[in-house]
Amino acid sequence: MKITTTAIIAASSVAGLATPTVAADYQDIRHQVEVPHGERQVTAVYQPKTMVSYRQVGNMTPNRPSTARCMWKAEISVERHLQAPAGQGSHVVRSLVPTKLIEGSTNGRCAQGKEQVSSALARRTDEVRSHVLAVAAEDRNALMAELSIAQGNPAG
After folding, report:
1. CA 114, CA 109: separation in Å to the nearest integer?
2. What one-character DSSP code corresponds to residue 64?
3. pLDDT tens figures, 102-137
C-alpha cells in the first residue's frame, strides 16, 4: 500500500495538477452606464472577474538542478451587475462572453510563484480594462433587449 501511495504522489508531482483559484485582481476596474428602463434609470456596472489556474510541471530533486516550472492561466470574464434605484427593484448579475485568457510561466513551484503571477497580471491592467469596455459595448443591444422584455415589451 505504501509503494502505491508513493507512486501516486510522485506521478501527481511530475504530471502537475491544475489548481484553479479566484484572484482578487482588477477590483478597481469597473465601467458603469446608466440605461433607461421605463420611467427610471437602471445602472449597469461591468467588472472583470479573474480565475487563475496553476499547473506544476517538472520536479525538484535533491542534488540535481531543478526542472520545476509553474504554468499558469488567468481567465478573465466580465460580470454585468444591474442595479435598480434603491427600493425599486433587484440586483441582477450575469457573466458575459467572451473571456480573455492571459498565460505565462514562472520558475520553481507554483506555491512560491503566486506573487510573480500577481505582478504579471498587474502589468496587464490596461489590456483588461480594454477588454471590459469592449465586452460592455458588445453587450449594449442584449442589455436593451433584456430590459425591454422585463418591461413587458418583447418586440423592443
Report:
1. 9
2. S
3. 999 999 889 888 889 999 999 999 999 999 999 999
